[in-house]
Amino acid sequence: MWDETENRKTRVFLVDDHPLVREHLTALIQREADLEVCGEAADAPTALELISRQSPDLVILDISLKQSNGLELIKDLKQRWPKLPVLVLSMHDEMLYAERSLRAGALGYITKEEATVNVLSAVRKVLGGEVYLSERMAGRVMKRMVSRAKDELGSPLEVLTDRELEVFQMLGRGMGTRQIAEELRLGIKTVESCRARIKEKLQLQDGNQLLQHAIQWVQSGTRG
Prior knowledge:
With about 220 residues, this protein is an alpha/beta fold.
């Protein structure tokens, strides 16, 4: 389903909840003689439905989506279509999210800052089956692989699991435990346990400190 055929353009599907980002990406991609945008979506359910119809050769997606989590979407895509390459394009801090994206199944990670200049290079590299990362991030990953150590964390939040980071981000956006539980389709006790683990891992004294820490992180612009 995902094999390229001769004499046809390579089909790219976009998943981003910002219309202007999708418009800009479409303009860049459509200029290329061998590439075309075959569809777009602003959230995970719509993306999964349309991707099953459009059969793209590549998906470019953001981590932050409307009522969706980009990391979970990557995992869903790789489970349904293991050979479908995914490139993450996000405003998230690459030091915190690039490795998470690769672990989820993406082949590349590019920041929106870098995208205007390098997105087509990233697209072609990922389509060729290679991993795309910025030079800084690639060097960090290689160093970690060689040393097999985790003593160079780019952020204290790296100790959190994907789910814990998602809950932490939602707390920072002002969402309460019940609202988070409904949004993530989890039990309230599960969210409370998650909060407790986050507090312990980040060595925070109480719920107020946790909330303050989360809000400051979100407001600092690291979320995208």
